[in-house]
Amino acid sequence: MNNEQLLDLVKQMTLEEKTAQLLQLTANFYEGTNVEGQITGPMEEMGITEQSVDASGSILGLSGAQAIIDVQQAYMKKSRLGIPLLFMADVVHGFKTIFPIPLAIGCSWDTELAEKSAEIAARESAVSGLHVTFAPMVDLVRDPRWGRVMETTGEDPYLNSLFAAAFVRGYQGDSLKDEPDRLAACVKHFAAYGAAEGGRDYNTVDMSERNLREYYLPAYKAALDAGVEMVMTSFNTVDGIPASGNEKLMRGILRDEWGFDGVLISDWASIREMIAHGAAEDDREAAYRAIRAGVDMEMMTPCYVHHLPELIESGEVDEKLIDEAVLRILQLKEKLGLFDNPLRAADPEREREIVFSKEHRQVSYELATKSAVLLKNDESVLPLQPDANVALIGPFAQSPDILGWWSCEGVKEDAVKLGTALQERLTGGKVQFAQGSNVHTITAEQIAEALEVASKADLIVLALGEDSEMSGEGGSRTDIRLPAAQLELVKQLKAAGKPIASVIFNGRPLDLHGVIDESDAVLEAWFPGSEGGAAIADVLTGVVNPSARLTMSFPQSVGQIPVYYNHFNTGRPLNPEKTEERYVSKYIDSPNEPLLPFGYGLSYTSFSYGDLEVSSNEMTAEESLSIQVRVTNTGERAGVETVQLYVRDVTGEVVRPMRELKGYVKLALAPGESGTATFTLNEEQLRYHHSDLSYRSDRGEFHILVGANSRDTQKKSFRLV
């Protein structure tokens, strides 16, 4: 259908049919899902009619080709105007083939592989009947207490923007209509959900508009520039107004300023939650505020279907707002080709061939190897030697709980376990197992068994971490250390006097005290996905040389949070050479700096940097600078070095960060080989939001900082004239 035909279709719809198109429900409201008695109960609980269900626009959370075919066919038989349903789900880091969590994917600094993971997730989802994924989540995060940091790619707006665009390209391809094995993407959560106070989920967000625009909005804008079809509102307030009723944010910035004309959907029940926030008296006012803000689709509350007709009849809401929302939804259905083929790519036979295929799992494996960050490696304890006699101890030694939150249709039992994979690889050595502890509890018998196994080994590999319930949505924590049982296990095994290599499975940066000092080596595995055990085993044994770099700082303790690399200076900065000074900005019981900085990660080889070269000590608006540094692999293994470029604006009209990431180059170097990392820096990259929100650069001095992470850099200066 062309746009005129879609407009004509809107004109044919009754007001009740139009408002029903704006309603999203879960599958248990619909015929064809083959669960007896599941339709009438939810309808009564929500207070909606069978007619509203029969005319509703989309379904949340159903998957499986045959199930979706059955529901769509039953629905289409009742559809007066032949308007098909949209099927949506949270396909966050894979459908059945589960990739590492997005925070881990960010640590790969590999946008091409990130894009490939989204393409595979789309292929598996589409053949299973889905049309839309609620991904990517691009919220900037600085507080690891918040469980949903696992869904983001980190604390930097530039890097988050690159990944946002890559995920959108992977999910959507070039044409949804011509590529039925793709999904429409929905970027979330607009806006600033990652800045919830205290790291507590759904909590208040309060910041200046300048801060919002400078750090939190760029990744959403990057997703829009990549063509994302949908945007989801966030649960939180922004400047005192819940996002789902925030006209300035949704109509002012998203639609008018940025020109977004796609579908805007509320998060689960977030329209009705305006009542709990104290921004709406009842469902009627919540519907009024949300439709005026430009929210097209209401997820799992009936405010629209109950109250939009009367709001229109009373003249409080112009019906053209409803027509615009319905048209946007119909346009998305047309882009997906659903009017021509309501079943789209759903195909049970192809589903069996494609989903969780060997080819897809290989990409999951590759991404997991590139996402594991080597945090410590004293005395080159890692990689393990082929003939090593290893004691593999800990609750994750043989745990299948390595997929992480939001693992969609992933099955834990399908995941490759670390112990199984390590045993297969150390064919000339020996792997002995002990549970050591559970995730949260430990017994004297477990300790005794662990010490017995350790006594017979040359080296201990400790498999520790959070279970998947300890992060993700609703997974906020005030204590981000490993559970006490596991810290006790580390303490007991440290006394055995054997080298210890700890592998951490988790969904957030942790306070690693109690592990990092007691271990000779530490590998951050995150939740690595379906092939996680194989990937981590290959990193431990040196089949793969780790190359990942942190995209979120690891704190010294929870008391430092938020701690992030692109912070401001203060009027009384701490001089590292005068740590005894009192009246400066510091803690008296902790360093200011994080335990591990943004961009940090080790390798099994070593790299040396030559002198930093800059083409000029002046920049103009017309002429860019060329920046180069020679890097040499000084070790005995091939490896990848991620050379990072940071810039500091020394004096601005508004205070500027101590450094900001502006680019990076990955150099793959053989032993003894040298390569040159070359960057181009132009005036546009120096712009920022001033106090009047204008976006421009300042003349004056700038520092160029290049190195292996945000802390360890060389510096040169130039002036913008």
Give me some keywords for this one.
single chain, 721 residues, alpha/beta, 8-stranded parallel sheet, 6-stranded mixed sheet, 21 helices, 30% helix
Give a structural overview.
The structure is a single chain. The protein has 21 helices and 27 strands. The chain is an alpha/beta fold. It has an eight-stranded parallel sheet with strand order 9-6-5-4-3-2-1-10. Strands 11-16-15-14-12-13 form a six-stranded mixed sheet, with helices on both faces. A five-stranded mixed sheet has the order 19-27-26-21-22, with no helix packed on it.
Short description:
With 721 residues, the protein is α/β, with parallel strands linked by helices.
Describe the secondary-structure layout.
Layout: H1 3-12, H2 15-21, E1 23-26, H3 40-46, H4 50-55, E2 58-60, H5 65-78, E3 86-89, H6 102-107, H7 111-127, E4 132-133, H8 157-172, E5 184-190, H9 209-216, H10 218-225, E6 230-233, E7 237-238, E8 241-242, H11 247-257, E9 263-265, H12 273-277, H13 283-293, E10 298-299, H14 303-313, H15 319-335, H16 348-354, H17 358-371, E11 373-377, E12 389-393, H18 418-425, E13 430-434, H19 444-455, E14 459-465, H20 484-494, E15 500-505, E16 521-524, H21 532-540, E17 607-609, E18 613-614, E19 618-619, E20 625-633, E21 639-649, E22 660-669, E23 674-681, E24 688-689, E25 695-696, E26 700-707, E27 713-720
Parallel strand pairs: 1-2, 1-10, 2-3, 3-4, 4-5, 5-6, 6-9, 12-13, 12-14, 14-15, 15-16, 19-27
Antiparallel strand pairs: 7-8, 11-16, 17-20, 18-20, 20-23, 21-22, 21-26, 24-25, 26-27
Helix pairs in contact: 1-15, 2-14, 7-8, 7-17, 8-10, 11-13, 13-14, 17-21, 18-21
